[in-house]
Design brief:
With 81 residues, the protein is an all-alpha fold. The protein has helices spanning 11-27, 32-63. It has a domain at 12-63.
Length: 81
């Protein structure tokens, strides 16, 4: 029987957590041990965010196939000015 894993939190929440962690480290008021623990957690969060961005990029590229050939298309922003 596989152990249950916690559901992945939204990308934005993970990014907020990383930003908070960076602010905590930048404050410079943590012990060396606490700073190292925060740094390790930050590296893990960063790797998770990078993985998720790569997965999203792959999905966008796959959805942009034209004529059976993969075509990379940049996102076009709507100009509301």
């Amino acid at each position: 029987m596989k152990p249950k894993t916690a559901p992945e939190q939204p990308f934005e929440k993970t990014l907020e957590d990383l930003e908070t962690l960076v602010r905590d480290l930048e404050a410079g008021d943590k012990s060396l041990e606490d700073s190292l623990a925060l740094f390790e957690k930050g590296v893990a969060l960063s790797k998770d965010l990078t993985r998720r961005l790569e997965e999203a990029k792959t999905k966008v590229e796959a959805l942009s196939q034209e004529g059976g050939r993969l075509v990379r298309k940049p996102f076009e922003r709507e100009d509301n000015s």
